[in-house]
Amino acid sequence: MSKRKYADETIKMEEETEEEYESEDGGFSDDEYQTPKPPPSFGGLISKFAFSSSSSSKTPTITLPAPIISRSTPCENPLPSSRNTRSKKFSPAEAETSLAGEPSPPSAKTKKKRAKHGGYVPPSVYAHLSPLPDTLDDNLICVFIGINPGLKTASIGHSFANPTNLFWPLLYSSGCTPDRRLPPQMDVMLPELYSLGQTNIVKRPTKDAAELSKEEMLAGVAGLEEKMRWHKPEAVCFVGKMVWEAVFKVQNRRGLRKGEFEWGWQEGVRFAKEAEKEGSWGGCRIFVVPSTSGLVAAYGPEFKRNLWKKLGDWVQMRRQERGESAPKIIEEGCPW
Predict the structure, then answer these.
(1) What element of type H or E holds 229?
(2) What is the pLDDT, as a whole number, of residue 33?
(3) Burial (CB count <10 Å: 0-12, 13-18, 19+), residue 17
(4) Among candidates 245, 250, 205, which has minimal Cα distance to 223?
(5) Given this model, what pLDDT does residue 232 score?
(6) Distance between CA atoms of 149 and 204, rounded to whole angstroms?
(7) How high is the pLDDT of residue 110?
């Protein structure tokens, strides 16, 4: 047999031997890898090939060693191919986790960050808008004190005029205006018809309360106290916790502590109380509700209705005790 023919037969048998070690999925199976077995018939097959020599009548047999097939340890979770690594890079920690046979931790979804508010805006920005006038009178049952007018309110010139604001619907459902839901244009009739009033701790309008400074809020407390001492209402309702926080800080020279606040009546506290002397005014009761702005969605409708109902029940009780109706009877010819 020629040397070329011998080499071709050897290559062919090596290929057949490698096929015996392949599993169905194209890799090496675990059992075959743990207990490797040499080709059982390779030595027998190769022994039939012999070289003839002219110097001897006997035909010597040369046995070739079995071919060594190099196999690397299969990895349960190999790293992705080079084609995949182009789009995703693995950190050293992820690579170690993958090689250890553990699944890589899922990548955290990137949360959309809310755009941060710009913060304080100077009065010059909205100087073209007029301040909102107060609707106050003497001896009212309750005065509602908001934070400051919004842009829609300032442009129209009436309280809580933004359609998304819940002030007027809650005023009606609570019983403070039991006969109807008033439009913002009727804010000027609150004292005359219902013994109610409205003002704000800060006069200038802004897009929202975040555009005000803390100094403005604290400075507005003194003006509120002066108005309440002049008109002497029975109670005030702070529409927004920010108002009460500013009042509390001025009165106590510190902020509210954790667990020191609850919505509704602030028992044992009076607002705008005069210095104790003979005939001094004892101040007005305090009720606190969340802001009615449409931008405030931290409290559900049911919570707001129930909270406002407590105030409305007290207002109606005081009307009966004062002998008033709601709305009060007014002269004929009034456009309202």
Answers:
(1) helix 214-231
(2) 38
(3) middle
(4) 250
(5) 97
(6) 7
(7) 56
Largest separation between any pair of C-alpha atoms in the chain: 148
Residues 136 and 231 sit within 8 Å (Cβ to Cβ): yes
DSSP secondary structure of 278-316: TT----BEEEEE----TT--SS-HHHHHHHHHHHHHHHH
CB 284, CB 138: distance < 8 Å: no
In Å, what is the CA distance from 24 to each residue of 20, 29, 125?
A: 11, 9, 75
pTM comes to 0.66
Is residue 153 within 8 A of residue 132, CB to CB? The reply is yes
Task: Report yes or no: 23 and 32 within 8 Å, Cβ to Cβ.
Answer: yes
Beta bridge partners of 265: 287
Strands 264-265 and 285-289: antiparallel
Contact assessment for residue 273 and residue 281, using Cβ atoms and an 8 Å cutoff:
yes
Q: How far is CA 244 from CA 8, 210, 236, 284, in A?
A: 97, 16, 11, 14
Q: What is the pLDDT at residue 278?
A: 74
Query: Residue 133: what pLDDT?
Result: 94
Length of the chain: 336
Cα–Cα separations (whole angstroms), residue 102 to 25, 87, 97, 109, 296: 21, 21, 6, 21, 46
What element of type H or E holds 142? strand 142-146
CA-to-CA distance for 187 and 159, rounded, in angstroms?
Answer: 6
> What span, in angstroms and rounded, lies between the C-alpha atoms of 233 and 141?
6
| All structural domains of the chain with their residue ranges | 142-322
CATH T-level topology, domain 142-322: Uracil-DNA Glycosylase, subunit E (3.40.470)
Burial class from Cβ neighbours inside 10 Å (0-12, 13-18, 19+) for residue 236 reads buried
> Which residue positions in the chain have pLDDT lower than 50?
3, 6-7, 11, 14-36, 50-59, 69-88, 90, 95-103, 115
**What pLDDT shows up at residue 193?**
97
Nearest Cα to 209, choosing from 251, 260, 243?
A: 243
H or E segment and range at residue 317: helix 301-322
**According to the model, what pLDDT value does residue 196 have?**
98
C-alpha span between 159 and 225 (Å, rounded) = 20
